[in-house]
Design a protein that fits this description.
8 helices, seven-stranded antiparallel β-sheet
Amino acid sequence: GVLRTMQNVCEHQGYGPLEPLGEGAARMVVCPNHKAAYRDTGALHAMPNCGNLDELKVRGVGLRQYAIASWGPLIAVHLGIPQESFLDVLSPLPERCGEALRDIQFHKRFTYIVPYGYGQASKNYLDHCSHCPSVHKRFATCVDLEKKSFEVFRFGNVQHIPARVTDSQDVVVRTGDKDYYWFWPNFTFNNNGDGTFDTNRFVPLGPDRCLVVNDTYHNGTKSDAFMEESNRFMDEVQREDNVACTGLQVGGSSPHFERGFYSRPNDVLIHHFHRMLAQALSHEVEE
């Protein structure tokens, strides 16, 4: 009943990844190279022809472990020494959405490798839907962009986008009031207002490539047919974003473009992201 996370590399000579061995209480992982076996606690258990095994066990040799925390369906791993708790980083999301996630159920994962960088993906997400009328025409029909608002927090922000009252039968999902949370450096939690939720991670693969990981959830009341339609809608929006972000990547890489300008209020959240990014890069340089 304990969550643990550990590096999937053998502490003997650095072989990885390790392979699962056994089931139930006897489950372990084993190094395919020299057959060092580790318990699911990470502790070294056995190794053929190792005469100093008992000494290694006394020394506490085992797989390197990292800090881990969870909230709702989310599990966070910190590869260093956390200065803040996971709940503090997510605040005020847990206080506002905890009850809504009580019966949350995972549905599907979608992944996209896209031809633009992490920064472009973040800018597109954080422009307070100012690109929606031109890029997401279908989505724009089910929200009231005249009444949108936002809040900025210590480690993130949220965009509030109310639903539009419409008689159109074209959009049958994603019709509720929306709260789109973004957290430093690359995670989003989207409450779609219709009993569905999704998360995004923008994982850098290079200056002009990133991996978009999208996980979809519902509150336990949605049918598979509803979720499939919701996912089709989400995929449509993602593919429209891919076109927009690719344009940002191509144009931003032009030798004729030096830097952009900020437009208030739509670019306030982009400015917030840029400040956090600049602070993190400055810290790395100092280190």
